[in-house]
Every structure is written in structure tokens, then in C-alpha cells.
Specification:
By secondary structure, the protein is of the alpha/beta class. It is built from eleven helices and 18 strands. The strands form four sheets. A seven-stranded mixed sheet has the order 5-4-13-14-15-12-16, with helices on both faces. Helix 2 packs parallel to helix 10, helix 8 packs antiparallel against helix 9 and helix 10 packs antiparallel against helix 11. It binds flavin-adenine dinucleotide (FAD). The site of flavin-adenine dinucleotide (FAD) has 31 residues, from helix 2, strand 2 and helix 10. It comes from Virgisporangium aurantiacum. This is 2-polyprenyl-6-methoxyphenol hydroxylase. InterPro entries: DHP_3-monooxygenase (IPR053212), FAD/NAD-bd_sf (IPR036188).
């Protein structure tokens, strides 16, 4: 078994293929259970870990870089019925993470009185927030499974097994590594390095308002003109808004202190007064006065550059006699307009858990099970990343692609 020390060595790995020798069992017929390492403790990672624990796997570890992720907050996320069903199966009551029961999106195009240009459609799911969903998941992860402040920096194969290297010099081996480490994934950099992120030419400016407009009862989408989209939805304690506006990489860097790919999330402390003033001015120009006032009065600001990536071609790689997989944003971060980020990650976690259950409980060949998992989920991931630029172009957002 070759020892692979550098990420570049791993990069030479071929993704899992049907030519891989069959029956690479990580679950011995008798004896100890396989070790599953989950990298990332936000949404996809905890869903996967909880499904594996529910399946009776005992050696599951979640490694999360952030030492205090519980203190982090995030805004509105949409969950389609497939994702809600996975959470049902984890016995997480929906009312714990869906606080506003609406199922509609109301859209306003153009300028002028809102009444005549409102269109409403049904969304096939419900809305939550990152904060609510993460909290519901994290509360169910046993303390001995969740390891915080553990940043992975590399992976090697030793004695036939994947070995994770922590930034602090520690190491941990596993039989299967599931990278759920988000859009700047170290797993993707190691396993699939030819797919860097590209700045799409516009920014999602975000605000958490502590007041809620009286007429805000569902997810509202305002599209007054090309190059401007404003979304707002009720959340506990107020309203969450996202204002999509074009910006060059130079503007982004000036506003948020680092280039888009380097600062994939700009938190409150990175939002400069200039960024704030620009957003306020755009709100005053394009939004009805009550919404412009709401934006202006929102103290809690954040931002994220919209980033694109080439569609994935693989999801699982053999590492020694073990495996490593990419899921969720680590596999393919979609643009927010697709509303598929959390859904894709949860569906992929559910599918991977199903593949592992067949292997552990029924002796299914693991290579075959992982290839089946890839076949079922890859096309959706590809489709989602392709949709992003199409929707963006329709809205006049971003650079043509
Ligand atoms: C605090 C927070 C707030 C968010 N708010 C929103 C929001 O308001 N709207 C929205 O659309 N999306 C939001 N997201 C992103 C959203 O969760 C994802 O787009 C999507 O749901 C897929 O989730 P994920 O678990 O695959 O990836 P992510 O949610 O991005 O999670 C990746 C996790 O991996 C961890 N990680 C990264 N690198 C390493 C490493 N080397 N070693 C160990 N751990 C690592 C990160 O700290 C993070 O917790 C937020 C994410 C976070 C972390």
C-alpha cells in the first residue's frame, strides 16, 4: 500500500470506477464495525452522522473546524419535501426548525404599485433557517461523536486506510471519509483539484432585521429590474433579507477586505461602511420605501460572493482499501437562486447512508453500492450547478457565462 503524504499525490487518484476490484469490504463479517469520519458539522455532516448512528454504526466521528459553531447564525434555507422527509425519519419534529408554516413564494416584477404585479406560487417544501436546523441537528449528535475545533488539512493512505491530518498535527484513521466541509472544501481540493471556484460577478448582501413588515407572510422576491433581486422572508424575531447586486471582484475586495474566493463568507466584522452605504443606496433606488427603510435600519449585515464551479464528475474515490466521498457544498456549491444547497446535501447524505446500510447489514459490495449512490445523485448535482448561471443571466446578475 503506497503512502501518500501530499495532497498532490491524492490528486492523482482516479475516482471510483466500475473497474475497481469488487468486495472492498469495510465491514468485516464479524468483529469490529467500520470507522466513518465525517468532515464538517454544519448541516450535511450532522444529517449523515445521525443517519449512520440510526443505522447502528457505532464508530462515527464528526470533525468540525469551527470551535464554536453553535454560536454561529445563518439565514433562510428552503427544504424540499425529500429533505423534510429525511428529517422526519431522524425523529426531528418539523415544528422545531420550521417556525413559519408558509408554503408560498410571492414575486413582484418591475416598479410601481405592488398589487398588480404580484404573482404567487407554491413551493414544494418549507422554509427554515440555518440557525434553527443546525441547532436541531447538533442537539441530537452525541457529545462523543462531535469533535469541534478540529480542522482537517490533509489526507493520506496508510496501511490501506485513509488517514486524516488535523491542522494541529493530530491524525485519525477511518475506513470511509465523508467530506461535508462546504464550499471551500479541503476534501474537494484533495480529491478533485481541477474544479476551483470562480467568482460569478455578484454578491448576496444579507441582513437580519429585528422587525418584520406587517404584510410579510411568506417568502417575497422583488425583481424591479435586471441586475437587482431582493428576497425577504419572516424568521423568528424579525425578517431575513438577501439583496443580490452586481459587483466586480475589485469592489468586493474593497468592501469586504479580501477577494471573493478567499472570503467566501463575509461576516459582520468584514462588512465595511462603504458596503453598507452602497446596499442602502441601492435599496432606496429600487425597493418600495418601507423595504428600503427596513434595509437601512438593519444592523446585522453579512455577505457572500456568488461563486460557480464546474459540474462534478465523481463523488467517491478509493483511498487505499477505504474510500473518501464529497457531499453537499463540498461536492458542488450551487447558486442560492437554485434553492438546492441544503436539499442536495441532505439527499446525498440519505443516499450514502442507504448504501452503507446495504453494505453493513446485507453484505452488499461497497464499491457497487457507492457507484449506485453516485449514479443516483450526481446528475442532480450537475443539473443544479448548471442551473445557477442560467437563472443569474435571466436576472441580469453576474458576468455572462
Ligand atoms: C454558520 C453558517 C451559516 C450559513 N448560513 C446560510 C444562509 O443564511 N443561507 C444559505 O443559503 N446558506 C447558509 N450556509 C451554507 C449552507 O449551510 C450550505 O450552503 C448548504 O446547506 C450545504 O451545507 P453543508 O453542510 O454541505 O456545507 P456548509 O454549511 O458550508 O458546512 C461546512 C462545514 O464544514 C466546516 N469545515 C470547513 N472546512 C473544514 C475543515 N478543513 N475541517 C473541518 N471542518 C471544516 C465548516 O466550518 C462548516 O461548518 C451557512 C453555513 C454556515 C456554516
Amino acid at each position: 500500500m503506497g503512502l501518500m503524504h501530499q495532497p498532490t499525490d491524492l490528486a492523482a487518484k482516479q475516482e471510483l470506477s466500475p473497474d475497481h476490484p469488487p468486495s472492498a469490504a469495510i465491514a468485516p463479517a464479524t468483529g469490529s464495525q467500520p470507522h466513518i469520519a465525517v468532515v464538517g458539522g454544519s448541516l450535511t455532516g450532522p444529517v449523515l452522522a445521525l443517519l449512520l448512528l440510526q443505522a447502528g454504526l457505532e464508530n462515527v466521528a464528526v470533525y468540525e473546524a469551527n470551535p464554536d459553531l453553535a454560536a454561529a447564525t445563518g439565514g433562510v434555507l428552503s427544504l424540499e419535501h425529500t429533505a423534510l422527509d429525511v428529517l422526519d425519519r431522524l425523529d426531528i419534529p418539523q415544528h422545531e426548525y420550521v417556525k413559519e408554516g408558509f408554503e408560498t413564494i410571492t414575486q413582484f416584477r418591475g416598479y410601481g404599485p405592488a398589487g398588480g404585479r404580484r404573482r404567487q406560487r407554491t413551493y414544494p417544501g418549507r422554509f427554515t433557517t440555518w440557525t434553527l436546523l443546525h441547532r436541531a441537528l447538533a442537539a441530537r449528535l452525541p457529545a462523543e461523536v462531535a469533535h469541534h475545533g478540529r480542522r482537517i488539512s490533509a489526507m493520506t493512505a496508510e496501511a490501506g486506510r485513509p488517514v486524516l491530518h488535523f491542522k494541529d498535527g493530530d491524525r485519525a484513521s477511518a475506513d470511509l471519509v465523508a467530506f461535508c466541509d462546504g464550499r471551500s472544501s479541503v476534501g474537494r481540493r484533495l480529491l478533485d483539484p481541477a474544479r476551483p471556484l470562480h467568482y460569478a460577478g455578484y454578491v448576496a448582501h444579507r441582513g437580519t432585521a429585528t422587525v418584520r413588515p406587517a404584510d410579510l407572510h411568506d417568502f417575497q422576491r422583488w425583481e424591479p429590474c435586471p441586475g437587482v433581486q431582493f428576497n425577504i422572508a419572516p424568521v423568528p424575531g424579525g425578517a431575513d433579507w438577501i439583496f443580490f447586486l452586481n459587483a466586480t471582484a475589485v469592489q468586493y475586495t474593497a468592501w469586504f477586505g479580501a477577494p471573493p474566493r478567499q472570503r467566501a463568507f463575509a461576516t459582520a466584522q468584514h462588512v465595511s461602511p462603504a458596503a453598507r452605504a452602497y446596499v442602502d443606496q441601492q435599496a432606496a433606488t429600487h425597493l418600495p420605501a418601507p423595504l428600503a427603510d427596513l434595509v437601512h435600519s438593519t444592523a446585522g449585515r453579512a455577505a457572500a460572493p456568488v461563486l460557480d464551479i464546474a459540474p462534478p464528475t465523481g463523488m467517491a474515490w478509493p483511498i487505499g482499501d477505504g474510500y473518501a466521498c464529497l457531499l453537499g457544498d463540498a461536492l458542488a456549491p450551487p447558486r442560492a437562486h437554485t434553492a438546492r444547497g441544503a436539499v442536495n446535501g441532505i439527499e446525498q447524505a440519505d443516499g450514502l447512508a442507504a448504501a452503507l446500510r446495504q453494505h453493513i447489514h446485507h453484505g452488499a459490495d461497497l464499491t457497487g453500492a457507492l457507484l449506485g449512490w453516485r449514479r443516483r445523485h450526481l446528475l442532480t448535482a450537475v443539473d443544479t450547478v448548471r442551473q445557477g448561471p442560467v437563472i443569474g443571466a435571466r436576472l441580469g446578475l453576474g458576468t455572462a457565462s
